[in-house]
């Protein structure tokens, strides 16, 4: 409201009555879009419109699959397949990310048990956890229950956390992270290097894995600075006993560049885009 008032004041003073109308209209249609999306997301859970895609995480040395990342997709009844960026922010604002996140968690555990029972030997599934999920009371218990429901060992699950999780650092968040660690699930710091205080979080929380953001992988071959940064990240990971995983490995040059620096694991289009479950299963089956 304050913003709108200021805009109105500004437009009046400059004699820009029409612009104000346009501005006001944009605000309206934006919040209407958000409301509509929120309604649709609520229905999407009931109508089973979500789906997980899986991107292999591989050993850069030989391409062996060492795990996978579950990435959320939404089959919108009219607009078709929707990427997470188009709806996760709205899901977070409306808190719907909590039930959606629980669905992701259960689905990931379900596939882990299905693949294990089929003898496909997948060892690990990573999933992305939103900051909003940490503010739900007893998130660690939700995770423990999902694991137990599908009889999946905690070491099979990796929770990827971005730095924005720590924007609202609190004692509760701290306790939840420690409880998850004690539970035995792996904790991964996603998009490492893109935030302001990455090093402090590494120092304060028990991360098992660091994901080197795609922006560094992409620039690795172009400039010496990026090479230095990736090198430093690898050193830090090593010192902390955390596994480093490079995101966005798109070609052979990136693969060998990363290998030369001592990075052992990666993900990216060079190996595979995120796959529908049938295709990912085929990939697992093929390597047996
Ligand atoms: P992220 O966790 O950093 O996931 C990696 C993103 O990079 C994915 O986009 C993936 O498809 C894409 N990617 C993988 N390999 C390459 C590559 O070689 N080159 C390029 N250019 N991109 C690559 P996607 O699936 O659109 O997901 C975007 C973001 O949405 C994710 O970023 C994650 O932050 C969020 N997200 C996805 N699924 C979930 C979920 O279940 N819950 C929550 N809270 N967030 C999710
Ligand atoms: Ca991720
Ligand atoms: Ca990432
Ligand atoms: Ca990212």
TrEMBL record:
Q: Which GO terms describe its biological process?
A: signal transduction
Write down any Gene Ontology CC term. Answer: membrane
Q: Which residues form the EAL domain?
A: 34-288
- Keyword annotations: Membrane, Transmembrane, Transmembrane helix
* The protein's name: Diguanylate cyclase (GGDEF)-like protein
From-to range in the entire protein, with total length: 548 to 835 of 853
